[in-house]
Write a structure and sequence with these properties.
CATH architecture: Alpha-Beta Barrel
Number of helices: 11
CATH superfamily: Aldolase class I
Structural class: alpha/beta
Radius of gyration: 19 Å
Helix content: 40-55%
CATH class: Alpha Beta
Number of domains: 1
Shape: globular
Mean pLDDT: 95
CATH topology: TIM Barrel
Largest sheet: 8 strands, parallel, barrel
Order of helices and strands: EHEHHEHEHEHEHEHEHEHHE
């Protein structure tokens, strides 16, 4: 069986990001442009950069008590990093938010005044980049992306810090990723992309992945009765995803409801998926955004201490029941 080889330093950093069973249950709030938009849509006045910085700080202060670690961005998230729970590890995003929609290919870019070295010097335990990827897109686009992922991998090897690659799939034809049409091709897009970036040439340590199906189109979960996959087909896609990589991998929530995400983790377990935790964002805290924007910090804090805490504790339970230790997949040198 192929295993991921880790240095002692990388192993220690991954342990800092995990619970005592070596499962990752991390909180993600590295959103920038999308979070600005979410706050603006619910506020009668412009909260500006300070509003975003404060919201991230409140999430970090209140909810890292119940998570193993937190993912933040260096543009608005550094104050939040400073108020996280003392036991919580830290991941930092290295990519610019979004992509240039005027150019084809959703090409990635790095923050110009950051590096893996600087992220490590912050006290972070991992570097994370997000990559929009269509395995079926032309070689001229995907080769640029492959080199991009290699470049960051080389930096992380040099700095001896774990490298988390978040892959968000799409179709180059601009198909709606929430549609039934895309649901039909999503298992292929997700699972084949995992195979690509499991190649040791990329030096990725942990993959942060979408689930391989759209649960809203799974028999028994489908909205309005419109199913694209039978229950058995969906279970098979989860098993194929797990078999597609030897690397540790964790699930992102992709903005679904907290309840559906927790159900999805149990579904993955039923399928025999050997996933190793979650890096969960909006599913945990998105309901707090409107409250923060409309009613202010104190009311949002109360939501975090009640509903937010419940979301985290329910998620912790689902992860504990469903995930497997990443240590099962690694050897240390």
């Amino acid at each position: 069986m192929t295993m991921l080889t880790l240095t002692k330093n990388k192993f220690a950093h991954l342990q800092k990001l995990s619970d005592n069973t070596n499962v990752i249950n991390a909180l993600a709030i590295d959103q920038r442009g999308s979070l600005k938009k979410m706050i603006a849509e619910n506020s009668s006045e412009d909260v500006g950069d300070e509003g975003i910085i404060n919201f991230k700080s409140e999430i970090s202060r209140e909810l890292t008590k119940y998570s193993t670690s937190i993912l933040l961005d260096p543009e608005y998230g550094l104050p939040a990093a400073g108020v996280r729970d003392e036991h919580a590890g830290l991941l930092i995003s290295y990519e610019k938010t979004g992509y240039d929609a005027t150019e084809p290919g959703r090409l990635p870019d790095l923050l110009p005044n950051w590096s893996a070295k600087r992220i490590k010097e912050l006290g972070a335990n991992a570097v994370k980049i997000l990559l929009y990827y269509d395995v079926d897109e032309g070689e001229e686009i995907n080769d640029i992306k492959h080199a991009f992922v290699e470049r960051v991998g080389s930096e992380c090897v040099a700095e001896d810090i774990p490298y988390f690659l978040e892959i968000v799939t799409y179709d180059a034809s601009d198909m709606d990723v929430n549609s039934a049409e895309y649901a039909k091709v999503k298992p292929h897009k997700v699972n084949e992309s995992m195979k690509v970036f499991s190649d040791p040439a990329y030096a990725v340590d942990v993959l942060k992945m979408e689930v391989p199906v759209n649960m809203n189109f799974v028999e028994g979960y489908a909205k309005d009765g419109e199913a694209v996959y039978t229950r058995e087909e969906a279970l098979q896609y989860f098993k194929e995803q797990s078999d597609a990589t030897h690397l540790p991998f964790i699930f992102l929530s992709a903005g679904v409801s907290a309840g559906l995400f927790q159900e999805t983790l149990r579904f993955a377990k039923e399928a025999g998926s050997q996933f190793n935790g979650v890096l969960c964002g909006r599913a945990t805290w998105k309901d707090a955004v409107a409250i923060y924007a409309r009613d202010g910090e104190e009311v949002a804090q109360e939501w975090m201490r009640t509903e937010g805490r419940k979301n985290m504790e329910d998620l912790n339970l689902a992860v504990a029941e469903s995930a497997t230790p990443w240590t099962d997949k690694v050897t240390v040198i």
